Amino acid sequence: MEDGPLARPAGRDARPPFCRRILERQAMRALASRMAVMSGEGALSVYARAKELEREGRSIIHLELGEPDFHPSASVSEALKHALDEGKDRYCAVAGVLALREAIATYLHDTRDLTVSPGNIVIAPGCKIALFMALMALIDPRDEVLYPDPGFPGYPSITLGLGGIPVPFELSERNRLQPDPDEIAAKITPRTKILITNSPGNPTGTVYTDEVQRRLAELAVRHDLLVLSDEIYARVIYGGKYVSLMRYPGMEERTVIIDGFSKSFAMTGWRLGYAVAPPRIVSALQMLAVNTYTCVAEFSQYAAIDALQDREGATPRMVGEFAKRRQQFIRDLNRVPGFRCSPPEGAFYAWVNISETGMSAEELCRIMLEEAGVAAIPGAAFGAAGTDFIRFSFASSTATLQAAVERIRGVSVTWQRTFAAH
Hints:
The chain is an alpha/beta fold. It is about 40% helix and about 15% strand.
């Protein structure tokens, strides 16, 4: 409370009228133009509505978020507690604790046959921040960024927010949801700077074939493109061994890997991600870290070392359970009138074609949520190529998935009548 001769009279604004008018005009000024071109995530919007219904007493089955229903193994929690007990709650290296970066280098060697120096790794508070920083470090206004459609909504949103131009390439059923290198080649211009890849992919579950990756690598080398390889689902595959795009000829010096702990280690709320990049890009990422988050929480980094070592085999067990759910859930979804879905090769999403229902994906998702209590995401939330699709997450228990399909079948009469009317 102010006191003395300069104190403001109680109950009114003592500033001169012209000062108040200036402040009012400033308060009315528009937000930065980038905010008008960036977009949110459909999954989070559906989640918000689903939570509203739950607060009203409705029973909701959440199949909208890509969040494993597992938790980190007990040893990870113990490692976190131990780190706190040892006082590891201080500022630490901007790029991340050296011991964690060494553990990541070992992990990438063991799981992806990559030889990476700890000095090429930067720890971030989540993969989104790592992706955001990589794009901020690499693109100037009007630079073009090739990205998969359907794909993670952050790719075009962040690009637009930074003044770049997002250029989609389609993942279509006619091409088995694989990127078409010929389409990508035709879209490369002198302004194209970055190619974003995501294998296994969200929302389609596509694992890029060796032929596709080889051709993408050749395009990147020929046109001097940088590649952001989003590998957050690299451990969640159903058959075969994962191959990073960084392993192909000429790609080590032009690839930035984005990865983290949310999906492979069920550590979504820990917000731990990392980027693997050439030295010149690492320096830029560190500069951005200095100017934003400074460093990632020290104690969580030490716990992440234990997660990477996975002495209890938690990740293989989790993926094995996902494989069982995948088989059962896809089979059950294909019994819903108008639904058509092929088993994904990776990740934990069912990408369902609903064109034969005669209804829009948005209307179907509304019916499923409001009438059946099942939350899912209309495919257009992932890009224009997803218009005739719905994404379901099968990162829930088998019993939950079975209950969801039963509820969906119960309301399917709605779109069966619509289809019959047409």
